[in-house]
Amino acid sequence: MAAVLRGSRYLGGKCCKHVDFAFVSTRYMASKTSVGFVGLGNMGNPMAKNLLKHGYPVIATDVFPESCKEVQELGAQIVDNPAEVADKTDRIITMLPSSPNVIDVYTGPNGILKKVKKGSLLIDSSTIDPAVSKEMAAAAEKMGAVFMDAPVSGGVGAASSGKLTFMVGGAEEEFTAAKELLTCMGANVVYCGQVGTGQAAKICNNMLLAIGMIGTSETMNLGVRLGLDPKLLAKILNMSSGRCWSSDTYNPVPGVMEGVPSGNNYQGGFGTQLMAKDLGLAQNTATSTKTPVPLGSLAHQIYRMMCARGYANKDFSSVFQFLREEEEGQ
């Protein structure tokens, strides 16, 4: 489907300062037309698969060609770079590791904005600095496109089952169009406000997640040292006031739960390096807003230490193993 223009940037020969939303987007009516997807890593891969399962033709690319194999076998069209994705479709989702990656994918030599169509909807599900989301939105606006930030929560398991939570920031007029696609990959799609507010919500969530995982790991480790069976302790915690997501859904102790990274030598899941990155974003925003976050600061330091000790590529729940090794080294 051709790109749907919300309004010309040129009225009577004069350039408008912003995209005119007077013409309400009808892109949401173009169901089952192609969707671009950039970034097919641990999260992006299952997200793209869910779009395919819902009948959307997917045009995808990744900096690592081997990451494209699975979705290609399911019917996705693979192209060489983000600019080619933008040339072939007017709805694009990106899922990338960090702010520099997002900047390169959107504004680099082969970036989306090199060939973006006017009226395109660009949804970024990466977790990045809210300020970068605002910069990308401004750059997209200059090209007549709309950028929305829509980071996710739920991890690889929720990405695979289509039960992610999306926190969406951007023009409210475009939320319906974005939600059409996001509901194929998530159980909850929440509008948070203008561009950057989705990132703000995600950063707050991940700071709490890190603090909770460290607390759960400390608690489980203490209980084991006191002679409690870890499965019994987890059962008690999960029927008591100490219950939390890290204890009842993603327990960090090997052998307590099946189907979580702790049962697979902490492989897969959400990497320690990525958690350290997200906590760094929380620290930066806390500093800029003069917000005290003492536990967030300690969590950041712990995950940075873990990265320096060889845990960078292990799931963030490996903080339990890290604490055990610290204890044994004393």
UniProtKB/TrEMBL annotation:
Coiled coil: none
InterPro entries linked to this entry: 3-OH-isobutyrate_DH-rel_CS, 6-PGluconate_DH-like_C_sf, 6PGD_dom2, 6PGDH_NADP-bd, HIBADH, HIBADH-like_NADP-bd, HIBADH-related, NAD(P)-bd_dom_sf
First-listed, main subcellular location of the protein, grouped into a coarse class: mitochondrion
GO terms for MF: 3-hydroxyisobutyrate dehydrogenase activity; NAD binding; NADP binding
Keyword hit for Transit peptide: yes
GO biological process: L-valine catabolic process
Metabolic or biological pathway, per its Swiss-Prot or TrEMBL entry: Amino-acid degradation; L-valine degradation
UniProt KW keywords: Branched-chain amino acid catabolism, Mitochondrion, NAD, Oxidoreductase, Transit peptide
Subcellular locations according to the entry: Mitochondrion
EC number: 1.1.1.31
Residue intervals of the 3-hydroxyisobutyrate dehydrogenase-like NAD-binding domain: 196-322
GO cellular component: mitochondrion
Pfam families for the chain: NAD_binding_11, NAD_binding_2
6-phosphogluconate dehydrogenase NADP-binding domain mapped to chain residues: 35-193
Catalytic activity: 3-hydroxy-2-methylpropanoate + NAD(+) = 2-methyl-3-oxopropanoate + NADH + H(+)
Catalytic site positions: 202
Annotated family: Belongs to the HIBADH-related family. 3-hydroxyisobutyrate dehydrogenase subfamily.
Protein name according to UniProt: 3-hydroxyisobutyrate dehydrogenase
Species of provenance: Zoarces viviparus (Viviparous eelpout)
